[in-house]
Known about the structure:
The chain has helices at about 5-15, 20-25, 30-40, 45-55, 60-65, 70-85, 90-105. The protein has 7 helices and no strands. The mean pLDDT is about 90. It folds into 2 domains: about 5-65, 434 Repressor (Amino-terminal Domain) (Orthogonal Bundle); about 70-105, no CATH class. It is an all-alpha fold and about 110 residues long.
Amino acid sequence: xxxxxxKKVLQLRRNRxxxxxxxxxxxxxxxxxxxxxxxxxxxxxxAEKIFSLAFALNTTADYLMDDTVDSERQLDKDQSFFNDYxxxxxxxxxxxxxxxxxxxxxxxx
Length: 109
């Protein structure tokens, strides 16, 4: 499992002023396993535990698991963009695809 998962759980827990005991009670996960998640990158919690942590920390499992997203705000922006994209008609989606292809050609080597 990723090092970032533990860092994100620790940061969110602290931001929400939760002790490990409190997070354990909210998530149904033992304090010792929460300590392992926060401190040992090799720990691989089950999907069920990740969803429980996400719910208890008022975030998403996607945020906890995605190594490319470093802040919840960025994830919110990405989800908002995707929701806007889904509302586009066929022509609008074609334009967005073309813009992405142009961007890739000019920024990826």
